[in-house]
Amino acid sequence: MSDTNSAGTNVDVVDILTSDHQDMIALIGQIRSASEDSQRRGLADTLIAEVMRHAVAEEMYVYPAIEDHVPNGKDEVEHDKKEHDDIVKLMKRLEKVEASEPAFMELVNELEAQLSHHANDEETEQFPKLRLHIPREKLVDMGEKVEKAKKLAPTRPHPSAPHSELFHKTLGPGVGLVDRILDKLKGRRTDS
Q1: What b/e string do you get for 91-126 counting C-beta neighbours within 10 Å, with b at 16 or more?
Q2: How many Å apart are CA 94 and CA 183, to the nearest integer?
Q3: Do residues 130 and 13 touch, judged by C-beta distance below 8 A?
Q4: Pseudo-torsion of CA 53, 23, 146, 5, nearest 10°?
Q5: Among candidates 42, 68, 77, which has minimal Cα distance to 138?
Q6: Which of 4, 77, 166, 177: disulfide with 63, CB 3.0–4.6 Å?
Q7: Per-residue pLDDT for the chain (192 aa), expressed as one digit of tens each?
Q8: Is 49 in contact with 155 (CB distance < 8 Å)?
């Protein structure tokens, strides 16, 4: 079995999001073992982009499914959205700190703790409920939608951007495109 998002695969949304969690934690390990500040900064920027894509896709497709199909789903989603907001605030702080500063690794460690906690909640509580309450074909379809959303999602936390479904469904893809264009034009991100 392939773990890509190509049509006809057996990978469902739970597999995709669990794999994302593993990739995020692996990136943190790479940040820790990087020998140069520029490597650490680049890996941190990659991590931030991956977390943003993941969070946007969850809010667009997974959270509405939890609200509709999982008992007490609305409460669970509220809890998760608050955790997403906390993670986004932390990533905004990380973006502003130079990789050479001691605060950089402190923020990376704090981000790892928050991501691990959030991933553990989802993998042990919500994902099994999704599989219990939603037919497999729908989970596979959700997985394809999540993969598409991740490709279009904003890659950086935006200070004034509302962190909601409606925003991401309408304006979010444009913001992500603007991020990528500006990053390419600048060669590297300067200040937001």
Answers
A1: beebbebebeeeebeebbeebbebbeebbeebeeeb
A2: 17
A3: yes
A4: 130
A5: 68
A6: 77
A7: 344 444 445 799 999 999 999 999 999 999 999 999 999 999 999 999 999 989 989 989 999 999 999 999 999 999 999 998 999 999 999 999 999 999 999 999 999 999 999 999 999 999 999 999 999 999 999 999 999 888 887 777 654 444 444 444 444 444 444 454 455 555 544 444
A8: yes
Looking up tokens 């042990």 gives: 124
Question: Nearest-5° angle of CA 56, CA 45, CA 42?
Answer: 155
Query: Token pair 């997403």 is at which residue?
Result: 84
Q: Are 59 and 163 in contact (CB under 8 A)?
A: yes
Residue with structure tokens 């392939």? 2
Residue type, 42: G
